[in-house]
Amino acid sequence: LYRCEDCYGPDILSKSCCLLKHACHPLHIINKWNGTHFERAALADIGLRVQPGHEGMPCLCPQRGHISFVVIHTNAIHRVNIDFCGCHQRISHCQQLLRCKWYPAT
């Protein structure tokens, strides 16, 4: 069971519902029930993959991003499973990140 610290309301969600609900909110903070209490869990650890290149639609030819892809956000530092667009209409990885307002840095 999962709950989100950032979503409005006291919803307790299954894993599949949590992933579906957070497909467009990959930087929310998730807590997982461990049998006695809720503890922090990363959306990346429960299987969420972010695809910035198709404005929310899945790419048919995704290219996996760096295994240690990290996003620094106002609420936390997030490890993100990212898949860049790899189809014939693709734009650069940097442009894909900029379009979703994630500013690349080193």
Question: Notable features of this structure?
Answer:
single chain; 106 residues; alpha+beta; 3-stranded antiparallel β-sheet; 3-stranded mixed β-sheet; 8 strands
Tell me what the structure shows.
This protein has 106 residues and is an alpha+beta fold. It has two helices and eight strands. Strands 1-2-3 form a three-stranded antiparallel beta sheet, with no helix packed on it. Strands 4-8-5 form a three-stranded mixed beta sheet, with no helix packed on it. A two-stranded antiparallel ribbon has the order 6-7.
Encode the helix/strand succession as letters.
EHEEEEEEEH
Query: Got a strand count?
Result: 8
Intertermini distance? 35 Å
Name the strands of the widest sheet in spatial order.
1-2-3
Task: Classify the beta-strand content into a percent band.
Answer: 15-25%
Largest sheet: 3 strands, antiparallel
Q: Which structural class do you get from the secondary structure elements? A: alpha+beta
Q: DSSP helix count?
A: 2
Mean pLDDT: 89
Short structural description:
This protein has 106 residues and is an alpha+beta fold. Helix content is 13%, strand content 24%.
Give a topology summary.
Elements: E1 2-4, H1 15-21, E2 30-33, E3 38-41, E4 49-50, E5 63-64, E6 70-72, E7 77-79, E8 81-84, H2 93-99
